Amino acid sequence: MSQPNATRSKIIAAVIAVLAVIWMASGQFGGAQDNSETTESAPAASKSLDSVQTVEIETVSAQSRPRMVRVNGRTEAFRTSRISAEISGQVDEILSENGAVLKQGDPIVSINVDDRAAAVRSAENRVKQFEIEYKTAQSLLERGFSTNVQVATKKAELESAKASLARARIDLNNTKVRAPFDGVLDRRTVEDGDYVQTGDQIGLFLDLDPMKVVGFVAEQRIDSVKIGQDAEVTLPNGNNYAGRVHFISRTADDATRTFRVEVTVDNPDLEIADGLTAEMHLQGAEQLAHRISPAILTLGTNGEVGVKYAVDNQVMFMPVNITTSDPDAIWVTGLPDPVQLIITGQDFVSVGQSVETRERTAMDAADKEMGAPVPNDIDPDAPAVEFENDQSGDMP
């Protein structure tokens, strides 16, 4: 606010205060007639003051801006595998410890081979035997000393022997429990000497690169989120990561009416852990918004945040929705376009009051850049306020 306007506002406020005191005093001690006269004079004084009240305005037009949606969520492993034993036997060797970073196929534990190697050798010998018998039956058939039924029987015996060999080799291979994909052995649940049955859990294995960030978007905002859309993820340590929308649920949660949304973030160094609280900033479709100073925000009669503006020299109030922020301004929706914002003197005028308006000049704008006060209850650095309910702690 310029110095002359500030002085004038202070003088006006002081005059109003003095008039109020005089009016109260006259009502207390001046009798009914004096009180009536004072009451009649008060509106006249107020009207006189309103008629000379001058405010500074700035005409602002809406601009196209991406709609930002901020969602609270948590990190989640891209894949999770509960590794189980595929054969029964005693664990005879631990090959990987908890926290080990493994490649697909790396061994985790070894189960006692027992007679499985011998079973493979026996199955191999039976295959060789039935191959010879099958070839002999074919040769005899060509010379008329065998029948088609005998040849088919030998062929079936050969195929059965090959199947037995395949099963024996699988059992032998399953004595080594291996990593199902590249990832981290989060927890191993068996130790050397434990006896496991087929299906018993061996450990929990995680794929942490890429990392998923999972949140839930309200049904009013889900149309702003698309597969492949850019996203930014902020973790509790303050680190920011670029990502993309990987998945959007087609079904809303029955209790919250929210949709599960997954963002993937590259995690080559595995520095992002599973289960961290995270904040997702999703850049949605374009929308029209006004860029204004947070210093002109004020509260309406019901406590709503909004701005005062002028229409035909009359003060109006409109609640706004803060979408995003820049270092020195905020972007809001909900205003008429264009709008004559009251940027100086808005705290000294009331809705419906007639005022004189003065358009801000380039010099006024330069003065404002030197440091306009910002209300304590407004944070100009807050990136967005289109919050979704935080479903990260109690996921449906």
Task: Provide an overview of this structure.
The chain is elongated, with a radius of gyration of 39 Å. Strands 1, 14, 15, 16, 19 and 20 form a 6-stranded mixed beta sheet that branches. The chain starts with a helix and ends in a 27-residue tail after the last helix. With 396 residues, it is α+β, with helices and mostly antiparallel strands. The protein has 5 helices and 20 strands. It is 28% helix and 37% strand. Among the domains are: 1-47, no CATH class; 68-77 and 206-286, Efflux pump adaptor protein, beta barrel domain (Elongation Factor Tu (Ef-tu), domain 3), CATH 2.40.30.170; 113-174, Helix Hairpins (Orthogonal Bundle).
Task: List the main descriptive attributes of the protein structure presented here.
Elongation Factor Tu (Ef-tu), domain 3, 6-stranded mixed sheet, disordered N terminus, Helix Hairpins, 6-stranded antiparallel barrel, 20 strands, 396 residues, alpha+beta
Provide the CATH top-level class of the domain at 68-77 and 206-286: Mainly Beta
CATH architecture of the domain at 68-77 and 206-286: Beta Barrel
How confident overall, as mean pLDDT?
A: 81
CATH superfamily of the domain at 68-77 and 206-286: Efflux pump adaptor protein, beta barrel domain
Strand tally is 20
Based on CA inertia axes, which overall geometry fits?
Answer: elongated
